[in-house]
Batch of 3 targets.
Target 1
Amino acid sequence: MGDLLDAIKARRAVRCYTEQMVEREKIDKVIEAGLYAANGKGLQSPYIIAITNKELRDRLSTLNREIGGWDPPFDPFYGAPVVLLVAVDEDYKNRVYDGALVIGNMMLEASSLGLGSCWIHRARETLKSRLGQEVLKLAGLTDKTYEGIGFCILGYPKDVPAAAPRREGRVRYVD
């Protein structure tokens, strides 16, 4: 088994992708990593909605751009062909923490598979929209009100940025 710290250090937020679709086996491995994230009381509350349909992905990108206030043709999914939406019952008090851990695990696994990934915000606003409700319905999640925690985009990177130096002074010991 490889050194986990090295894998963590190698992961980068990728914002430039090729058009090549990610193989289903790799998407499934990334999702599996998310499903094994730590979670409050072992409830396994987060849902992962894998969007690989280009038309739906493009509609979500357009909505995300509008929510973010950018002008066309900006793509807030940076050309990534796969969008993994993490959603949790909005009444669950640990929803943000559990969902964040899911996305973190998925980004690490993506990196280990040679994929690029990036956390994209505005999932919360998306799920409050008509399109967001359509996505939930397509995913069979109509029994509760769900909050979008984030999007994890996936694809083959055109470019992987170098790691920024770590800022000093962020660790404090209290002995």
Note: Residues 4-155 form a domain with the NADH Oxidase fold (CATH 3.40.109.10).
Target 2
Amino acid sequence: MLKHTLLHPQISAALARGGHASKVLISDGNYPHGTKRGPNAEVVYLNLRAGLPSVTDVLEVLTTAIPIERAEVMDYARTGPYALQADPEIWTEFRRLLRPTDCRGELVKIERFAFYDAAGTPDVILIIATGEQRIYANLLLTIGVVR
């Protein structure tokens, strides 16, 4: 299900094993990869250093490689130490990069622990660990159909 300009062989191979409705998680630098992943998820560690690569760097490449029909984000806390008063700034970048895809830039918000559950299902075939430092930057993509 590849449209392919992606060069990373391990990511390309994992995507090639997926199909319609398979999922890909692009995770930030705080994501618990060892404990919150599904049984079929291959983890590719791209986290070179703090901030590199960013989730948006990876998303930009993936939008050229796979059709994306759904994009889910971990909803932010409204109270407590990690509370925000508005959507995280990175979500604006997600929407911009996803606008040309089948999800048309729409982000589906999922409560934190429900997000971990969704990222731990057998449908998740790939987790790409980034060095992203912005909070609420995890993005769960559902692969669509090549038209």
Note: The first strand starts at residue 23 and ends at 27.
Target 3
Amino acid sequence: MSAQTTNSKTEDGETRRDFLYLTAGAFGAVGAGCFAWPFIDSLNPAADTLALATVEVNIAPIEPGQAITVVWQGKPVFIRHRTAEEIEEARSVDVATLRDKQTDEDRVEKPEWLVMVGICTHLGCVPLGQKTTQPKGDFGGWFCPCHGSHYDTAGRIRKGPAPKNLKVPPYKFTNDTTLLIG
């Protein structure tokens, strides 16, 4: 009889031990989740950034050859009303000679309007060339004086250390005079 009693106590003890391990593991997992969630949640965009998820821009007053800068999600966005000469210059480039191979047609929705994020793809500087008095680089577009990146009239990298073209944000024309970025 004592052998049966010892055997049932061992089985009962093992069952209780398994239950305690599972319970402790579950509490540990919940505790780790409670600890990690605030950190993971802090990686989400700030509320003021989310509020700027889309920006509507009236492009009617922008003359050909003129450029403006708007802020979208905390980043400068360059909008240039390109002249016929700038469009022709951008389209005449042999794409095979480019570091980041994109045609002008791939970068614009309407040829006369160029919309792109104004942050250099090398180290995150803001290139010059938006104002008529600023240097536009060797290719008539934008110039990043920090490390010497030159962009053409389509925002494509042509010279310097930048690895990629200036990024084109998601945008669409809601009508002939309004541009929606985001």
Note: The longest helix spans residues 2-42.
